[in-house]
């Protein structure tokens, strides 16, 4: 399988603080790649560089064969990148259905006049978008909260809705920022199943930041370990677990 | 000749375009007319014929009520096959028993959960082929017996099965029904179960204008009769919810006129109202409480016929402001008849539903009686009985107080222990017949009868019903066989106790911790103390244990209709039982999840 | 108390309240989508109505002038997004607010430069043959026998137009993709970009829509007060509306407008003597808003946090 995403020599700093130092890694098409590391290791920054929220000072990201230093997040979405956020970024004023519907934004081509009058393309588009949204709702088993404002939902369900919004965009690659943070065991098990199914049955490449080592080892094909902004491990879960630097970082041996 | 496919055929002739079945999929209600219904079952029958399902072939349908499984019933029976409905949450032990003793050849299962249960016991049963509806999660399953429903039906063409349907014999077996309490399987003929539904229809004047929502699996014999068969016999529309989590919303949208449910569903509605009220604002809480009190006072007057004109106005007002909105939330607005099986409602709950205009009608039935032997008439005011015996049946109580009956709509035993005594069918329940009214009162299962050390005998269900009447109690298990006094194991209801705890500012992280809180124990204690006041001195509950978890259906701890299954509980929670016997204070439970929990026995 | 008179006062208050609401919606839209308090709202009204009046004075027909003025406001809105807001994106909000102050100054000078600074009257009944445009009030009892009250006909016309405009806007923002996008952008910029919503396009649409609202409300106000700098002061009446309704809520702007409209009229009639006679209408709305804020600082429907202004 070819590499869908290549991160090469990326360095990112805020003022004088280096968040990421000279990091390179590749993500193969169709795999689940987990980026792990202790708090403040630069994981979220890495994801933000990939979808263009942050502009790295040095280095490039090659996605789908196109090499560039930065991209507008909207262009990233058009190119088939969908993501979730560490601190859930749902539209709090909207229902679950509306939130997921915003993920279909790029599939709405008709003009506002057609939509307002519900004629022409708008009618067909509305139907197909609603169908896509409903399929995702069924997949994530959230039928019962379809019309509930997301602000009223517990944390675990909000994470699921956010995954739905990313998924409904029919992405080539999913970037998940701590999809299981703050969940209980049962919710984590559900979320792991969803991620695995998305990857294995729909073939969507997934890059995931996660803290829970158990989950990471269970479901990922490839693990990249960051610590203090540097890469200290890269390989299959078993390789990474055997890596002395990784063991040190996780067991808290002083540097 | 009345057969199930025959009913579909005749509805197609009489009113082809009226709605036969509705179900919600991807957020939209889809409906099938009787014409579509016949078309679907005929196409499906053709597909099943191609895998050589034919006369006498036993086919299990294993899942929730989804249209594909519903259509499969009539399709299989069109070919002369016998349908075995299997509960989607059944244990692997039950599944093995059902499949092997009924000699099931084909298993049509809903999704991965069911296929996994089957794979656990695959080697022990005669199934030739498993057809699954939803292949999600099974992409890596390599098993020659597994076939996708979509593949099987993709090329199937419609065919005319009219001749075959007319040639079916109404005395042929239509279903094999499993009775989980008796652990036996019954043969149900087309005629017996259809005739039984006709009795219910004529007793309550149901018509094809009515509608019913069926949200429990058809493996529950009472449910099969009251929803599926009754809708087919009367021609009313049969509605299926989107999923088990959306039932309330789906009921709201459909607004059915007929409701059938085992008693636990009504208890659940009461509990839901209660925790909504507990978590409401102070003013709403007080308003609800005062309206509730007024409502019940007026209801008592209505029953005795002494309600004044002013009471009527007062009732209209509290209905409009409080109880109609509550009724609407649960989709009860249009209900004309609400049939209850598998247990009775407590007096408080029974009266409440009647007061808000939901006509609760208790019924009693099992697989052996094709789902129903007696049912309360409309406007019944007694919560105690289950009505009088239906036409064509006779009932008596034997010397052991067991209820026995004869019926023209009964089912023959296929496998299991015989329950025929001198031509009477022993129901396995103890009870009595009210001499004045002829109404049947059910006390509980006869094997559950507890004998105290003093020799006092009683049925634990009656006390359990009183204790479980509290919205904070999900279920309770009375223990006392051979002991000096009665103890009870209490399972708290997570939803209502959660909102109660939030209201009282009690902090907890999960169910186990909440159940161990002293405040919760005090709450349960005060409730049991209240219940004790209504009990004779020997039957007063002397101690209780708040269990650290809920009872699990897939472990066989509760029945499919949420009744406690004492044998499984005694095995799974043997430490609790022995601690009660030994009269300990604190003890450790080694639970089936391999973990240990510390519990205590609380004296009253 | 004469209840017929009270109804007259209430109806009059509601009718002018609708017009306050329309102006307030202009503020809310821009604040919701980009977090900017648009100081230039008043000058937009002036510019829009001046453009229209000058065209009609030069012999252009009513509908043509309306159409062209709307077009100019759209261009103006899009240009504001492109040349003022976009370059300042990601700057702090004070900078953005100052930019709108600059925009206001520019607009004021620009309208005087291309048009003039004279006071123009606007009499729509010269162009439109609608009975309601008659300057004389009507007796409701002619139409509804038991309702013996006197209402200025133009107020009815103005609130009908404003009400229609509000309905169209509500429909636009609930039923179209642009509406969904606007609501998304107003909730969370980052997430909106990540799902591919074009932020700039949404801003441009909002500024253009605000321009059209400015034109409509400008013309309705101008009919009452004339096209001149007094228009800007009229807009200041919308500030207490926003204080009451909250800057983030369109329903709040509508209800707030009605509350202020009614409150102002009631105050004028029943409280004027207590507070020293004439002139109460100049400050009473602000007084009401202040009283309201003491009780509920986030406004009626507003979100709890007001950290941006």
Spell out the blueprint of helices and strands.
The complex is a heterotrimer of chains A (255), B (604) and C (309).
Chain A: E1 3-14, E2 17-28, E3 32-36, H1 43-50, E4 58-63, E5 66-68, H2 73-78, E6 81-83, H3 96-102, H4 112-117, H5 121-139, H6 155-167, E7 173-177, H7 185-202, E8 205-209, H8 213-219, E9 222-227, E10 230-235, H9 237-242, H10 244-251
Parallel strand pairs in A: 3-8, 3-9, 6-7, 7-8
Antiparallel strand pairs in A: 1-2, 1-4, 4-5, 9-10
Helix pairs in contact in A: 3-6
Chain B: H1 4-14, E1 19-25, E2 28-33, H2 34-50, E3 58-62, H3 67-78, E4 82-86, H4 92-101, E5 106-109, H5 112-120, E6 129-132, E7 146-148, H6 149-154, H7 162-167, E8 173-179, E9 184-189, H8 190-204, E10 211-213, H9 221-234, E11 237-240, H10 247-254, E12 258-262, H11 263-278, H12 282-304, H13 309-329, E13 337-341, H14 347-355, E14 360-364, E15 374-375, E16 388-389, E17 393-397, E18 402-407, E19 412-415, E20 420-421, E21 424-433, E22 440-445, E23 450-451, E24 457-458, H15 460-468, E25 473-479, E26 486-492, H16 494-503, H17 511-516, H18 518-533, E27 541-546, H19 566-572, H20 574-581, E28 586-590, E29 596-600, E30 602-603
Parallel strand pairs in B: 1-11, 3-4, 3-5, 5-6, 6-7, 10-11, 12-13, 13-14, 26-27
Antiparallel strand pairs in B: 1-2, 8-9, 9-19, 14-15, 15-16, 17-18, 18-21, 20-21, 21-22, 23-24, 25-26, 27-30, 28-29
Helix pairs in contact in B: 1-2, 1-3, 2-3, 8-9, 11-16, 12-13, 12-14, 19-20
Chain C: H1 3-34, H2 41-57, H3 62-85, H4 93-114, E1 137-139, E2 150-152, H5 153-175, H6 177-187, H7 189-194, H8 199-225, H9 230-236, H10 238-245, H11 250-271, H12 280-295
Antiparallel strand pairs in C: 1-2
Helix pairs in contact in C: 1-5, 1-6, 1-8, 1-10, 1-11, 2-3, 2-4, 2-8, 2-9, 3-8, 5-6, 5-8, 6-8, 10-11, 10-12, 11-12
Structure description:
The complex is a heterotrimer of chains A (255), B (604) and C (309). By secondary structure, chain A is an alpha/beta fold. Chain A has ten helices and ten strands. Chain A folds into two domains: 1-80 and 171-255, P-loop containing nucleotide triphosphate hydrolases (Rossmann fold); 93-170, no CATH class. Chain A has helices spanning 43-50, 73-78, 96-102, 112-117, 121-139, 155-167, 185-202, 213-219, 237-242, 244-251, and strands spanning 3-14, 17-28, 32-36, 58-63, 66-68, 81-83, 173-177, 205-209, 222-227, 230-235. The longest helix of chain A is centred in the middle third of the chain and has 19 residues, at 121-139. Chain B has three domains: 4-257, Rossmann fold, CATH 3.40.50.12780; 264-333 and 335-447, Rossmann fold (3-Layer(aba) Sandwich); 449-603, 2-Layer Sandwich (GMP Synthetase, Chain A, domain 3), CATH 3.30.300. Chain B has a five-stranded parallel beta sheet, with helices on both faces. A five-stranded mixed beta sheet of chain B has the order 12-13-14-15-16, sandwiched between helices. In chain B, helix 2 crosses helix 3, helix 11 runs parallel beside helix 16 (494-503) and helix 12 packs across helix 14 (347-355). The radius of gyration of chain B is 25 Å and the shape is globular. The mean pLDDT of chain B is 92. Chain C is mainly alpha-helical and 309 residues long. In chain C, strands 1-2 form a two-stranded antiparallel ribbon. Residues 304-309 of chain C have low confidence and may be disordered. Chains in contact: A-B, A-C. The A-C interface holds A 51, 53, 72-74, 76-78, 82-83, 85, 89-94, 98, 101-103, 105-106, 108, 110, 112, 115-116, 118, 165-166, 169 and C 171-172, 175-181, 183-184, 186-188, 190-199.
